[in-house]
Amino acid sequence: MPDPVASLGEVSFGFRNAYLDHDRLTAQLRAWTAAFPELCRLTSLAQTPEGRDVWLLVVGREPDRTRPAVWVNGNLHAAELAGSSVALAIAEDALRVHLDPDGFDLPPPILERLRDVLFYIVPRITPDGAECVLRSGRTLRSVPRDRRVERGQPRWVPGDLDGDGLAFAMRVPDPGGELVEAHEFPGLLVERTLDDEGPFYKLYPEGVIENFDGKHVPSPFFLGDNPVDLNRNFPYSWAPTYEQIGAGAYPASEPESRGVVEYATAHPEIFAWLDLHTFGGVLIRPLGHAPDSKMDPEDLAIFRQLEAWMLDGTGYPTVSGHEEFLYEPDKPLRGDLTEYAYHQRGAMAYVVELWDLFKRLGMERPPKFVQFYERVTRADIIKLAWWDKDENEGRSFPPWRKFDHPQLGPVELGGVDPRIGIWNPPLHELAAMCASQANVFLRVAALAPRLKIVAIDRQPLPGGVTRVEVRICNDGYLGTYGMPSAKKLEFNEPLYAKATAVGCTLVDPGAAYQTLGHLDGWGHGLHTGQNLPAYPGSRGNTNAAWATYLVRGTGTLDLELGSCRAGFIKTRVSL
To answer: What CATH code would you report for 451-574?
Structure first.
């Protein structure tokens, strides 16, 4: 019999130390599915216009049986490749829970819980975008396609100009340029000050200007070559482009986002949702549109538990999307994936911005975390360049090359390659980041509700009738509804019991179906005051329910108990 631990190692394609292209990522997923068919299912959520599958890997014992599940996705934005590596690491660790549980630094109760949780892993939501970035290095937000019909205005079209297969940056000498070379690091462009003598530069993407009039150079825009940011294309609180840049033509207009929405809608058992991005080194949780005072307090307490794990396990702080991560004050993001997952799917949904670059630069935390991105100074950029040279093999700031641009004349190409070192962590730090993030998420997965039949009582009654009473309980951390605020969602049905009599009959056939209601979990998050001994007490047995049947004759009673969100238990009672 093969050693399952050795087999797991033999089918690893190096994602903890490299950023995989689509073919190699696909090969990794297929290798796991072929090696461990009893634990894996591979399906495609969608196919992109370039013909690539948006893969979803299901990991867990009995992967076709519905029960509480967690969702992980990465690479929603094209250049944020580290999310794919972390998602794959979580998938591999979910497999190891079953194949090599002794290989974890997790307590046995957590590992025992994890064996009955399903993992839905989507390593790369935008395979076309990631492939474009991996191959060319060009700046791209989500997807490399443009279906706009309004094409009359001047705009930048990034692309390889000198035939080297890459499309980085382009600097153009200009006395009105906002940038200047740093004396401390030749070739590095930094923000110009009054003290600088020049030469000065404008910085553009390598490429050409469509509809160029020969005079006016348009300003580059991060969505200039494509109107869609996939993380603004989800249906919750979606708004058109004039209100939300990147929204797309309509909610879930793109095959990638539509595939995610369709699958999530068909799988209400998803109770936790991790959306992996880069960069920043921070966890961003709901609410995105309102302060914490407007948040369900029970939800907030559960997120505090996650905050404690994240800080302890990775060093990343946790912030409210509304209170510390709005790009513009009082202007919430619209069509955001985690807002969709939290508000419409009732999941414990959050973003992790991988790669703590700001901490690496020694920057002090500003009043709001999002201000890190705008407060990077000239000194910080110089520090980054030296770090890149000393520890990242100089990947981020390659040399400039002279080139005669067909529209702008003499320019220089190269200069900035943010793929590894800025957008994503250096390769030698990827494995440690994968391990720490996976370790925290396994704890989140262990919060799952879990149904158990704890007692079946049979009581003989006169006239050949037997009273059957089945007691079911939830011994999981979360209630059968998942997050407390999710109780209001129409699909979040209460538990029910269905009985089928075989060889015997129900005295009351109408009692075959019984509504049991939701069952609470034992967890309540952190900082709720419930552990204060001033007034001892806890909930009553709100984690238990009973189904009772009167059965005449002998035979069997086949029972199914549960709900679409909490999963189902089946049992047979002999009479």
So the answer is: 2.60.40.10
